[in-house]
Amino acid sequence: MIQGMGNFKYPERLRQLELPTLAYRRNRGDMIVTYKLLSELYDEQVRHQLDMATIGQQPETNRFDLRKYCFTNRIVNMWNSLPDNVILADNVNQFKNRLDVQIDCFRRTLKTCLFDQYSAH
Description:
Elements: H1 10-17, H2 22-38, H3 44-49, H4 71-81, H5 84-87, H6 92-110, H7 114-117
């Protein structure tokens, strides 16, 4: 623990240390993995297991929570909300940089992070 931070609740510690939330980190990671999958940077077996046909479509509606939080259901709305200049990046690093710029733009506009809205809670 960092000296003097023990008295603060988790959200306040994150703000003071300028660290992103767990939901933000998970969602950003999901977007990077999605880019890699759609750019065919993973082998065919991995892409087949994740049923990549569902990406870019509507999320499945589920009566039960069994598949509600699956990767392919979690990422659809986030991926569809990204502009084309982010999605059509030439490589992974360019995608990450453009994604970070887009997230910063969302934060300034909405005063909150769009990616925090998509947490699985």
